[in-house]
Structure formats: structure tokens, C-alpha cells
């Protein structure tokens, strides 16, 4: 990268103002008169920017063919064969002063190593001369060719931007230094990006972390295998998930959730023995029938022989979640949370009363997963609650029903209108036949009828 200033008229123009033309477009941004000095630029570029800041100028881009200042850079330069880059003579019996393992890597070391490294010394030469034509087209030079416009040399050290290009001899020590507090590879890369670079640094940093025994011992457990999601059953009460909640308020709660409808059943229990569990499940089965699959954890009351026999005799497939994989029975865990949270909020009345109110509220409101109330999915009808009374359609329906019942009753009463001497039967509440034959004689008020039986007795009966 060369900076050429050319003025056709008079050098004294620098005291006033001048126009700076360059055929290197990035310089128009780096040395822009309206911008501050880029702190990320290499130190030599920063020095140039500092020098130019003393002048009043306007910088603009002009292609090399039309830039007369470029003539300087087109002057022939003596050919330098990179293969003949002077190599240091082999040194014998020289005390190598940079061998201490604990000492940090210094610029003096980098300079020393850079001058001895054939690749880095060749690249340095190209950077200083600006002639990259002599560089060998081999793999080891490619990383430097890619960024050659951003390379610079400072104090005989090769820099890429602000980063020192570390010779091979110092790389291992630098990696150890970066990993001194055992950061992860991402952090190490971030730190290294501010200081050093060499081809393949990222993979070397990753390898360092993978090889570090301390990091391996302290690393998190590998990600768990994805949970096998239960499929949604096709019908209600086909698969139920069972677990215990508690002790809670001094009691155990047997919590059962239907995987299809998400309807929760819950029983308050004094103990969580298998016998008590079976009895409570039996009560639930009287309402909903037997299920096809029952999912539980590995609690002793579920794994014992008695419970297994209960499952077998009722034709229920018992599935137990994997040990230490509580999430595999997550549906009932959620149900347990719903019961616990509900009982913490609903506190008026006895525990069973509170539980009933919690369950009614849960079953009658739309479920977040299905969008339908559990009761609707389980029983194909919505539960009537106190809130249902606010709906006018239900009030009217109830009202109409009551009106209809009154009409039917009135009709029946109207039928009980007899003429004198009509044959009738009277219901006998005593011994003998159930209905006694007789004739209607009179009516007292609107609802009491007098009947004369065949044996001469007269009965007064309410119609
Ligand atoms: Zn480590």
C-alpha cells in the first residue's frame, strides 16, 4: 500500500488546502477528512492518518491509469528472488534466551522468530516492497495472499490489521496463555482476535479446549436425546398418566390425567400404598371405565406385584417412565402443578371442597392445548357452572322446561274431573288389593274427591 501525493503547481499549497488523489479506494475512507482515525487500522496507517490530519485536504479516488502520482509506483524496482531470501546461518552453542516456559511471548521473540521463519520473512519482504509477484504459489502462502492488502510490518513483526501474526514457535505458548483460565473456544477466539493471528488458529483453539482434561471434567452433560412425544390417543380415557402429589396440606393426592381430553381426576389419600391406589383408581374406573394404557413413574406402589396384577387382570397396559427421566411423564407433572397451584389459591372451606372447586373450574374451562374444555372432550358436553346461569339461552331453556312441566301437570289434573256416579278406582294404601273399585260421589274444593266403595264405605282422596 503506497500513499502518493502529487501537486502540479507548488509545494507551498500544502500550507493552504489541497486535493489528495489516490488509486486505492479504501484509503478514501481511512484518510477521509471528515472522519477520525480508525483505531482498528494498523499502526502505520494510523501514523499516516495522524500526519495527514495536520493538513487541510480533500481526498478523492482516481483510477491508477489517470493518476499521475501513480507513476512513482510504476518505476521499475530491482528484482528480488524470494528463494534467495537470506536465511540465518545455523547457530551452534547459542543459548536460546526464550526457552522459559512461564515467560510470556514478547514482541522481541516475535521479531526474532519472524526473521527466522522462511514463510513470514518472505511475506514481510513482499509487504515492504509491494511486489507480490515473486511469492511462491504454494499452500503455505495462500492465507497471506488473501489478506495482503491488510498486512503491514512494524518493528520487523508482521501484522494483519492490529493482530500480530505469530510465528510457529510461539503458537503453542499463545494457545496455553489464551486457555490459562479455561475459557471456551468461542471466548478464546474472541480474545485472540484482538491480539494475534496465524493460519488455522481457530481450529487450534477448538482442539485445545477439546483436549483439556479440566474442561472436560467441568463440562455440562451432553444434550439429552430428544423426548419421545406421546401420540395423541384417538378416544377419551384411552391412555391415562398417573402420579402422586404431596405431601401437600398433610395429604397425598392421587392425580390422574386423561391424555385425550386433558381431564384431571384427583383423590385425596392418607397413604400412597398400592392397595389405596388401586381402590382410588377403581372408583375412577366406575365413572370412566377401564383405560387401555396407564403411564406411571417407577414408584414402589406402581412397581409392586399387587399393582401389576391389578393391571393384568383389567387388561390395562402399564407403561413406566425411564428412571431419572421425569419429563417422559410430563403430562401428569403438569396436572400435579395445576392441582397444587389451585389449592394454594382456593382456600375457603374443607380440603375436599377446595379440591372439588379447583377440579370443576379446570374441567369446565378451555384447555390451552386442545382449545376445548376437558369435560367437553371427555363427556361430549359442557359442564354447567354458576357462570352458565348468565347465559340467557340457558335461563330461557330452563324456564320453558318448567312451564312445560306445569302444563303437563295441569292437564293431568284436568283429567281428574268426574261426574257423579262415574266408576273409579281408588289406590289402596292398606292391606288387600292395590286398587279398590267405587263410584265418584262429590268433590271438595278443587283437589279432594269423595268415592263410595262397593262395601258402602266413603273415602276422601286427593286427586
Ligand atoms: Zn480447559
From TrEMBL:
Entry-linked PROSITE patterns: INTEGRASE
Q: Which Pfam families does the record match to this protein? A: Integrase_H2C2 (PF17921), rve (PF00665)
Residue ranges constituting the Integrase catalytic domain according to the UniProt record: 232-382
According to the UniProt entry, its GO molecular function terms are:
nucleic acid binding
* GO BP, sorted A to Z: DNA integration
Spell out the InterPro entries in the cross-references. Answer: Integrase_cat-core, Integrase_H2C2, Retrovirus_Pol_polyprotein, RNaseH-like_sf, RNaseH_sf
Name by which UniProt lists this protein = Gypsy retrotransposon integrase-like protein 1
Q: Name the source organism.
A: Eptatretus burgeri
Amino acid at each position: 500500500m503506497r500513499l502518493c501525493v502529487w501537486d502540479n503547481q507548488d509545494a507551498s499549497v500544502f500550507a493552504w488546502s489541497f486535493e489528495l488523489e489516490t488509486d486505492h479506494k479504501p484509503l478514501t475512507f481511512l484518510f477521509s477528512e471528515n472522519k477520525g482515525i480508525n483505531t482498528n487500522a494498523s499502526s502505520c496507517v494510523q501514523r499516516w492518518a495522524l500526519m495527514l490530519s495536520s493538513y487541510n485536504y480533500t481526498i478523492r479516488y482516481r483510477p491508477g491509469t489517470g493518476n499521475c502520482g501513480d507513476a512513482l509506483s510504476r518505476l521499475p524496482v530491482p528484482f528480488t528472488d524470494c528463494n534467495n531470501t537470506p536465511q540465518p546461518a545455523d547457530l551452534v552453542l547459542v543459548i536460546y534466551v526464550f526457552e522459559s516456559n512461564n515467560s510470556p511471548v514478547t514482541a522481541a521473540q516475535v521479531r526474532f522468530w519472524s526473521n527466522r521463519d522462511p514463510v513470514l520473512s518472505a511475506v514481510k519482504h513482499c509487504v515492504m516492497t509491494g511486489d507480490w509477484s515473486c511469492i511462491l504459489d504454494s499452500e503455505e502462502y495462500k492465507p497471506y495472499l488473501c489478506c495482503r492488502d491488510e498486512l503491514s510490518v512494524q518493528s520487523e513483526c508482521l501484522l494483519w490489521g492490529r493482530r500480530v501474526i505469530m510465528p510457529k514457535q510461539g503458537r503453542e505458548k499463545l494457545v496455553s496463555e489464551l486457555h490459562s483460565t479455561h475459557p471456551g473456544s468461542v471466548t478464546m477466539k474472541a480474545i485472540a482476535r484482538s491480539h494475534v493471528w496465524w493460519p488455522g488458529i481457530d481450529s487450534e483453539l477448538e482442539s485445545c479446549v477439546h483436549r483439556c482434561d479440566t474442561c472436560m471434567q467441568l463440562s455440562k452433560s451432553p444434550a439429552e436425546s430428544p423426548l419421545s412425544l406421546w401420540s395423541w390417543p384417538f378416544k377419551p380415557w384411552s391412555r391415562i398418566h398417573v402420579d402422586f402429589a404431596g405431601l401437600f396440606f398433610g395429604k397425598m393426592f392421587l392425580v390422574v390425567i386423561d391424555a385425550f381430553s386433558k381431564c384431571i381426576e384427583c383423590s385425596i389419600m392418607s397413604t400412597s400404598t398400592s392397595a389405596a391406589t388401586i381402590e382410588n383408581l377403581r372408583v375412577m374406573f366406575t365413572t370412566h371405565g377401564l383405560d387401555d394404557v396407564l403411564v406411571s413413574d417407577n414408584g414402589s406402589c406402581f412397581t409392586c406385584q399387587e399393582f401389576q396384577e391389578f393391571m393384568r387382570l383389567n387388561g390395562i397396559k402399564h407403561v413406566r417412565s425411564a428412571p431419572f427421566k421425569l419429563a417422559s411423564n410430563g403430562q401428569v407433572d403438569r396436572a400435579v402443578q395445576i392441582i397444587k397451584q389451585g389449592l394454594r389459591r382456593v382456600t375457603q372451606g374443607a380440603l375436599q371442597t377446595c379440591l372439588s372447586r379447583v377440579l370443576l373450574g379446570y374441567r369446565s374451562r378451555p384447555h390451552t392445548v386442545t382449545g376445548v374444555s376437558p369435560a367437553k372432550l371427555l363427556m361430549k358436553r359442557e359442564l354447567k357452572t354458576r357462570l352458565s346461569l348468565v347465559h340467557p339461552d340457558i335461563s330461557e331453556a330452563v324456564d320453558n322446561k318448567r312451564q312445560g312441566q306445569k302444563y303437563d301437570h295441569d292437564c293431568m289434573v284436568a283429567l281428574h274431573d268426574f261426574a257423579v256416579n262415574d266408576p273409579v278406582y281408588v289406590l289402596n294404601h292398606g292391606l288387600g288389593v292395590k286398587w279398590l273399585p267405587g263410584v265418584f260421589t262429590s268433590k271438595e274444593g278443587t283437589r279432594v274427591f269423595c268415592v263410595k266403595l262397593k262395601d258402602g264405605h266413603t273415602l276422601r282422596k286427593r286427586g
